[in-house]
Design a protein that fits this description.
19 helices; Growth Hormone, Chain: A; mainly alpha; globular; disordered C terminus
C-alpha cells in the first residue's frame, strides 16, 4: 500500500499537485453527489436540468483554448493557482442560490466553474505530463486518481451524517477552506519553466485567433490521436449522462438524500483502483478499448429494463470500472502520441473533447428522456457503444506497450 501511495515513478511535484487536488476535492465531495439533485430542484424537466448542467461545459469550451495557449508559455503551477482562486466564489454562488431560491446564482456558479476547471485541470494535466516519463504516464494518472478519489470518498462518507443537519446549499461552504489549503500547497511545489521556445503572441490570444490555432493544432494530429479523441468523446458523453441522470432517477423514485450519497460512494469505489488501472493501461494499452465498449453497451441495456436501487448500484459500479480504465488508457495513449513541446495544447484538447461531450450529452439525453422515455434512451446509448466497439477502436495505437509476463 505504501508503494501505491508513494510510487517511485511519480515525481515529488506530481505528488504535491495530487495532494492539493485531493484536499480541494475533499471539500467539493461533501456536496458533489447531490449536485444533480440540486440542479433538478430548479428545473421542470430532464431537458431543463441538462441545459442548466451544460452552462459549465459551454464556458469551459470557450475557456480551454486560451488556457491551453497560456499553459504552453508559463509555469503550470501558476495556471493551477489561477483556477483555484475562483472556487470560493463558486461555493458562494451555489450557497446564495439555495438561500434565495434563484436559479440565476446557479447559472453564475456553473459559468465560474467552467473557467476555474479549465485553468485547474489544464494546469494539472500539463504539470503531470511535463514532470513524468512518457512510459510511466499511465501510472502517474492512476496514482492521481486513486489518491484523489480516496479523499473524495472519505468526504462523501462524512456527508451522510452532515446532510441530516444541514441543507444541500450549505454543503457548498466546505469548498472554501479546502481550496485555500490547496492553494498554499500548490504555491510551494517546484515547477521548471516550460521548454516551448516560440514567442507568445498574447495579442492574438486575447483577440480570438487562439481558437483557430487550437483547431489547426487538432487538424495536424496523427490519425491515431484523432481517433483516440473520438473514442474519448463517446466515453465522456456516456459518463456525463450517467453521472447526471442516475442520481435524478433515484431522487424522482423517492430515494432519500442519504441513500443517494451512499450510492455515489459505492458506485465510485472503482476509481480508488486508478493506480492499478494505470499499470494495466501502461501494459496492455488500447487493445482493451473494444471489449470495454462491448461491456458498456450491455450495461446500458441492463439499465433500460430494471430500475431498482440495488440494480442501479451494481450496474453503475461495473460501468465506473470500465470507464475508469478506459479513460486512463486513452489519456496515456494520447500522451504517447503527442508532441512533448505542446503538452499544454494536448492537455487542453483532451479536456476540450471531454467537455464538448459534456455539453452535448446532458442536453441530448435530457431531450431524449423527455420525448421517448428513459428505457428507450438507454437502449440507444447501448447501440452507440456497440458501434464504437466494432468500428471506433481500430488503429488507435502510436506505440503499443509491451506486455510483461
Amino acid at each position: 500500500m505504501l508503494k501505491i501511495l508513494q510510487p517511485s515513478s511519480v515525481s515529488t511535484g506530481v505528488q504535491g499537485v495530487t495532494i492539493a487536488t485531493a484536499i480541494r476535492w475533499f471539500g467539493w465531495a461533501f456536496v458533489d453527489p447531490l449536485i444533480p439533485v440540486f440542479l433538478f430542484m430548479f428545473s421542470e424537466s430532464f431537458l431543463q436540468t441538462g441545459l442548466l448542467a451544460s452552462i459549465y461545459s459551454v464556458v469551459f469550451l470557450i475557456s480551454v483554448p486560451i488556457v491551453s495557449f497560456i499553459s504552453d508559455h508559463i509555469r503550470a503551477k501558476y495556471v493551477i493557482l489561477a483556477g483555484l482562486a475562483i472556487y470560493p466564489l463558486i461555493a458562494l454562488s451555489y450557497y446564495f442560490a439555495g438561500v434565495y431560491g434563484m436559479a440565476a446564482f446557479i447559472a453564475i456558479a456553473r459559468a465560474l466553474n467552467g473557467i476555474s476547471y479549465a485553468l485547474d485541470a489544464t494546469g494539472r494535466a500539463t504539470y503531470v505530463r511535463r514532470h513524468t516519463d512518457k512510459q510511466q504516464v499511465g501510472t502517474a494518472f492512476g496514482f492521481f486518481q486513486i489518491f484523489t478519489e480516496g479523499w473524495r470518498t472519505l468526504a462523501m462518507l462524512l456527508s451522510i451524517v452532515v446532510i441530516k443537519y444541514v441543507e444541500i446549499h450549505e454543503l457548498f461552504l466546505f469548498i472554501i477552506p479546502t481550496t485555500l489549503i490547496a492553494m498554499f500547497i500548490v504555491s510551494r511545489i517546484e515547477d521548471s519553466p516550460c521548454d516551448y521556445q516560440h514567442k507568445a503572441d498574447w495579442a492574438s490570444c486575447i483577440h480570438g485567433s487562439t481558437y483557430m490555432r487550437f483547431i489547426q493544432e487538432v487538424m495536424i494530429w496523427k490519425n491515431a490521436l484523432k481517433k483516440l479523441a473520438l473514442v474519448s468523446f463517446v466515453f465522456n458523453a456516456l459518463t456525463a449522462a450517467i453521472a447526471l441522470f442516475v442520481p435524478i432517477f433515484l431522487y424522482a423514485d423517492g430515494v432519500s438524500l442519504e441513500r443517494i450519497i451512499i450510492f455515489s460512494i459505492i458506485a465510485n469505489i472503482p476509481f480508488l483502483f486508478g493506480y492499478h488501472a494505470g499499470k494495466i493501461a501502461d501494459t496492455y494499452g488500447t487493445r482493451l478499448l473494444s471489449p470495454l465498449s462491448f461491456v458498456l453497451a450491455l450495461l446500458m441495456g441492463a439499465l433500460a429494463f430494471v430500475h431498482t436501487y440495488e440494480w442501479y448500484l451494481v450496474v453503475v459500479f461495473i460501468f465506473n470500472m470500465c470507464i475508469s480504465l478506459g479513460l486512463i488508457i486513452i489519456d496515456a495513449e494520447m500522451t504517447r502520441c503527442g508532441d512533448d513541446r505542446k503538452y499544454g495544447a494536448l492537455s487542453g484538447a483532451i479536456l476540450e473533447v471531454a467537455e464538448l461531450a459534456s455539453v452535448i450529452s446532458p442536453i441530448a439525453v435530457g431531450f431524449s428522456i423527455t420525448m421517448i422515455g428513459q428505457g428507450n434512451t438507454l437502449l440507444g446509448l447501448g447501440v452507440v457503444m456497440v458501434i464504437v466497439a466494432l468500428l471506433g477502436v481500430r488503429g488507435l495505437t502510436c506505440k503499443q506497450p509491451t506486455i510483461v509476463s
